[in-house]
Write a structure and sequence with these properties.
The chain is mainly β and 447 residues long. Helices cover 0% and strands 45% of the residues.
């Protein structure tokens, strides 16, 4: 059911995180481990924690004053067999919602109605009537989207002390917020005062994944899972100094692949596999600058610069695909080994059918940074533009002249595609630059 009218609430979003990672970070403040319940203001009442798909969520209530209002809406390879010892999955677990760090107060002016250059249809998604809102302020570090049958997830991270909008933002407003919408409105899964360039992904019907979120000394190759009201920090992806986690892909509820780039000694990419609660090394490929990974039950594909595309099928070793068209590759999606899609640095879609290549020009002028597909259609983002391969041709859905940044894309079907959209002109207003938008195959909708 879609809404015929958009009625943005005025939520004062509040969520708390007890952060204790195996003794690496100090235990957060009073009330740690207590009941997840918060009073959201005299007029707003309180909201307790509810369970959504096995996750604890704090529902944001409205507040008479002081809370942010939602954005105005009306309108040579090695590694065939798994190598290396298995690593215990959890380096430390932290309960969410019983004390710790709260979302910062948003003291910016109320946001005006958002009127982007793209045409918006009826606002809202399913029964959701609440515009997405995250009050963190600073310089953008990350904004991402992921979705599965349970709903839509958004992660925002902003750092402090750097100009944002028209003025500098002091420390105290920075941090990371993870939000969830099951079709009934936005809720906060957790917030942390530590900013991180975290990439949001997940296991379908399983934990959420935050790549690049963890203890400060291993943050560049950290992985954290969010599940059953717990934040579980995983062992670092890297196998030595100079490692940087670059990508991760969840195949099913307990099966994922990730990779880390090693920039010291012998530059290469280590691919790791998560299954049955443990990590193991799947293989090492000689990609000096790896960018993305995609996998299904039978194959794993890793892409990078200099025409580097490596595929592992079944128990075979990783092997470089032959005759790859020239270019640096930034993204990958697949439907099967005979239907693989890639995005390169000059705005081209490249298709591989298992035997031959086809290069498809798009209107994008920069790297195609993310791909997602369903029902034979492939959606792509390229900085300030968004489009799709509709099965026969490329369509530009958001042009590069929109003034928007299309930060990420994920979906549940070809008629339910979710976008993480940034509008820098809103950085100095409540809820900031971040907007949640979905595409129904024909029109865009804010939610």
């Amino acid at each position: 059911m879609r809404l015929s009218a958009f009625e943005p609430r005025n939520p004062r979003l509040l969520s708390e995180l007890c952060w204790f990672v195996a003794g690496l970070l100090p235990l957060a403040i009073t009330g740690c481990g207590g009941q997840s319940h918060a009073d959201h203001g005299a007029a707003g009442g309180s909201s307790g924690a509810g369970t959504l798909g096995g996750m604890s969520a704090v529902t944001a209530g409205s507040s008479a004053a002081g809370g942010p209002s939602g954005h105005g809406g009306a309108g040579a390879a090695s590694g065939g067999a798994e190598t290396g010892g298995e690593t215990s999955a959890s380096a430390g677990s932290t309960p969410i919602g019983g004390g710790g760090n709260a979302l910062p107060a948003d003291d910016r002016p109320a946001a005006p109605e958002w009127k982007p250059t793209i045409s918006l249809g009826t606002p809202g998604w399913e029964m959701s009537q609440q515009a997405f809102c995250d009050p963190h302020q600073g310089a953008p570090r990350a904004y991402g989207v992921w979705a599965d049958a349970r709903g839509v997830y958004m992660a925002v991270s902003e750092d402090c002390g750097i100009n944002a909008g028209s003025g500098g933002v002091p420390c105290g407003k920075e941090g990371l917020g993870l939000h969830f919408n099951d079709g009934n409105g936005w809720q906060v899964l957790f917030a942390d005062s530590k900013a991180a360039a975290a990439r949001l992904r997940g296991f379908p019907a399983g934990p959420l994944i935050l790549l690049g979120f963890g203890p400060p000394d291993t943050q560049s190759d950290s992985v954290s899972f969010v599940s059953d009201s717990m934040l579980s920090v995983q062992p670092p992806l890297g196998l030595g100094d100079g490692a940087s986690g670059q990508g991760i892909f969840g195949v099913d509820a307990d099966h994922a692949y990730a990779f880390a780039l090693h920039v010291t000694d012998s530059p290469s990419t280590t691919v790791r596999k998560y299954a049955a609660g443990s990590w193991s090394t799947l293989g090492i490929v000689p990609i000096i600058n790896s960018h993305a990974i995609w996998a299904d039950e039978n194959q794993v594909v890793v892409v990078g610069t200099d025409q580097d595309i490596y595929v592992k099928s079944g128990s075979a070793a990783f092997a470089a695909l032959p005759d790859v068209p020239a270019g640096d590759y930034w993204s990958v999606w697949g439907f099967s080994a005979q239907d693989l899609w890639f995005g390169n640095s000059v705005g081209q879609l490249v298709h591989y059918d298992g035997a031959s290549w086809k290069v498809i020009q798009t209107s994008a002028t920069g790297p195609i940074s993310s791909l997602w597909g369903a029902d034979g259609q492939v959606y792509f983002t390229a900085g300030d533009s968004f489009g799709r391969w509709n099965g026969t041709s490329v369509e530009t859905l958001i042009a590069s002249t929109s003034g928007l940044a299309i930060d990420d894309v994920w979906g549940r079907s070809s008629s339910e595609v979710f976008l993480a959209v940034s509008d820098p002109s809103f950085a100095d207003y409540q809820c900031g630059r971040y907007f949640a938008v979905w595409f129904d195959g024909t029109k865009f909708h804010q939610f």
